[in-house]
Amino acid sequence: xxxxxxNKNLYLFEKIKHQPVRTxxxxxxxxxxxxxxxxxxxxxxxxxxxxxxxxxxLGADILVVPDGYEQRSENIILGGEPSTFxxxxxxxxxxxxxxxxxxxxxxLFVASLNAGCCxxxxxxxxYDQKTDFTIGPWIEREFNKTLxxxxxxxxxxxxxxxxxxxxxxxxxxxxxxxxNETGTGFDSSVFMNMDAAKRAAGDxxxxxGGAAVPQNVVSSVAIAVKKGYSxxxxxxxxxxxxxxxxxxxxxxxxxxxxxxVSQNMKAIxxxxxxxxxxxxxxxxxxxxxxxxxxxxxxxxxFGIMRLTGASRSDIxxxxxxxxxxxxxxxxxxxxxxxxxxxxxxxQYLKNMLHMPYLTPSASQMILIVAVCLMLSALTGPLASLFxxxxxxxxxxxxxxxxxxx
Length: 405
Prior knowledge:
The longest helix is centred in the C-terminal third of the chain and has 43 residues, at 254-296. This protein has two domains: 8-53 and 261-401, no CATH class; 68-247, no CATH class. Helix 2 (20-58) packs across helix 10 and helix 2 (20-58) runs antiparallel to helix 11 (362-393). The strands form two sheets. The chain has a nine-stranded mixed sheet with strand order 6-7-5-8-4-3-10-1-11, with helices on both faces. The protein starts with 7 loop residues before the first helix and ends with a helix. The chain is 56% helix and 14% strand. The chain is α+β, with helices and mostly antiparallel strands. The chain is built from twelve helices and eleven strands.
């Protein structure tokens, strides 16, 4: 008479179906673990991507701004916080005589208002299309023509589509292009040519009142340093020769901004990684205890299976298969919840952190999800390993008769 083979998959699902409370509890534990791993990984990668994007987008070695406006300038770059400030454009003439400067280009910052005069409160940035080397190169990826005074390029966070219109300070502009996400304050900014920005500055004054804005002003100057010169040396040269009478300047080294943000980012990412590692280790230990208790309750069942012909490897396979199924189920649920949560919280995190924050690319996202699912799926089998080793070491009589395995 032939032995009747047990359908292992059917056996697995029957055991799971008849233990709904235990099954739900185990899946819930792994779901929480998977959710934390995925959310933490997305958060960490987004910060790292933001730093990379910031380094690429700055493009300049040095920024010259009015004295006292260093923090506002950084806030525009990092978070796109609207601000308006000026200095005399004669700084451009003075920079010509500074040793170590390869090229420079002015920018003009104008804050739009959150009112009926404007479609949104954003930072307006005017740039000189003839001399620019920081903003223009990545705008040209989407729009490689010259911007007219009635055209704008908008960041990824600004509502609007190419070909549509937006109103700023009671004036309508045509959207020439919309940029891809950069993870910096440029995502919440609007770009115009320099003449359009000067006109917007005049609109700003007319709207809020106050003295008229002179035509000969700029907000900042981006500078590239010649090869063979140190950035620090050029910075000192600028202070020695380019300071304006009655309108002092401040010289910001771009690496200072990047390094400052990078240090903060490393601290946050390191803390997040440590917390996730501790949670994963404790989750494995907790699941190990839970699985051991659960499997101990089934010791006679496994002993009888051994007597009816099941080998140690058959029983070990059943245990690993059940643990793997529960872990993978929890991993999938946790991954889904993590993706939804991260998608909802992205903009809030950008605003709260005031740091460059760029969500992972499609390839990065696939890799993160794959690693998360792998770690989640391994959690259950790893937690069952101690019990499996013990049951495979003991003989059948001991398994059936003793109080524990």
